[in-house]
Specification:
single chain; alpha+beta; Aminopeptidase; seven-stranded mixed sheet; 7 strands; about 35% strand; binds coenzyme A
């Protein structure tokens, strides 16, 4: 990880910054209330990446939510602030997810992604996710299909 970025659990105080990135990243963004609910779920793991600017100033630049249920994980959300994409921040988040999966004895994981989302597909492929199937009309907002991508934790 670059020295100027740190990864920490997401808390309620991060939600304004998280929701601003969310609005800028998804056609149907989650509401603050949905994020708040997520923070309460025992099987949810949620993290932010902050850019450390000075000793006292940090800015949330990305976040991720995944679930761990028994020995499987499901990636629910990942997003990076628009002007900081393609600089490795998404990779920092996925590496952290894999590290936690190993710690918690998770064997495998899955996620859904829009076939048009080449950036996300590229990120997932970089970490060994492979396309295993398709959910027809999965996304209610655009009726787009979802690719199902899976990976095994080694
Ligand atoms: C998907 C997303 C989180 C990637 O974050 P990022 O910080 O840009 O990712 P990284 O810089 O770590 O890139 C990792 C890999 O992803 C791929 N990638 C990233 N952006 C890409 C793009 N625009 N086109 C194609 N591949 C891309 C590359 O393979 C890259 O590997 P490399 O750095 O070795 O070239 C970011 O684009 C984003 O926030 N998108 C909007 C939200 C979203 O769509 N989330 C996923 C929903 S399923």
């Amino acid at each position: 990880m670059k020295d100027s970025f740190e990864i920490t659990p997401m808390t309620q105080k991060d939600l304004a910054a998280v929701c601003a990135i969310e609005k800028d990243s998804f056609p149907t963004p989650w509401t603050p209330a949905l994020f708040l609910q997520e923070l309460e779920l025992s099987f949810s793991r949620h993290f932010i990446v902050s850019e450390v600017k000075t000793e006292r100033t940090k800015e949330v630049v990305g976040y991720m939510i995944f679930w761990i249920i028994h020995d499987e994980t499901q990636l629910q959300k990942i997003a990076v602030k628009k002007d900081l994409r393609k600089q490795g921040i998404g990779s920092i988040l996925i590496r952290e997810m894999i590290r936690i999966c190993r710690l918690e004895g998770v064997a495998k994981g899955s996620l859904e992604v829009r076939p048009s989302n080449q950036a996300a597909i590229g990120l997932y492929q970089k970490f060994g996710f492979v396309v295993k199937g398709l959910r027809k009309g999965y996304y209610q907002d655009t009726r787009e299909d979802a690719l199902i991508m899976c990976f095994e934790v080694d």
